[in-house]
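Both lines are retained for reference:
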Amino acid sequence: MEIRQLRYFTSVAEHLNFTEASRHLFVAQPAISKQIANLENEIGIKLFERDKHSVRLTPAGAVFYEEVKAILEKLDLALKKARDAREGKVGHLNVGFLRSPVRGFFPALIKDFRCQYPDVQIELFPYQTGEILKRLLTGELDIGFTISTGLKNLSDFEIHPLLSYPHCIIMNSDHRLSQKDCISVSELSNENFIMLERKEAPQTFDFIIEICTAHGFYPKIVKQTSRIETVLLLIDSGEGISILPKYLLAYATPSLLFKNIEGDYKVELVVIWKKNNPNPSIPLFIEVLGRHVPITK
């Protein structure tokens, strides 16, 4: 018994006319008649009563039609789901992100994607930069939104810039340099630095070390913490300063200042994923992302 035979049978059963079924199926009438005769012989049941003027389902044929119709509907649904899964319209997507730099577009992006692809289960994970990169490498994340610092040599990844932010010096309003609009890194040689732990944000940690040593000193790190909110709280409490991207301005308070740095020190928010990741939902997500924020190739 072939699926083709079942489709021929249901078409004839619905039209009760071999000529109409032939037109509907775009198949020659003799071929349909032959396949239905073969089906009847194979199952040992007469499905149609035929004469020169009419075609009727036998009682057994009527029962067989209802069951076959349900089977073919389930088969068509299974085929559709399989094709949708192949195209990424059904599946699962894990997305890691930095909270602050995506705030402007992320809610609308996720809502848009879920509306367009409701059968893709998307899981969102707010991580620091180190955790995002680690989980992308292990395959636990499919896509990451992180900063560009330290990503130049990752040849196995697609990395596309989205938005650009300057680095700035963050300090308390009572700091001795608080009246200056623009500050040189060299003026920070005697300052206490508050840092994210390197395991949490290795790119940012190394960047601060690099920029300070390039100006002739190693930063005096007095406190390291695992959360950016704690870094900013300690700075706001007058415990020290830090050099961080200006997108953290979202956490500003009346006493927390974000000062420009002399020189061109910028960081880009990027979207990143593994080139060999076979998840077919990734291109669909990137396509929707492009409607919310420009993607630089």
Summary: The chain has nine helices and twelve strands. The chain has a mean pLDDT of 91.
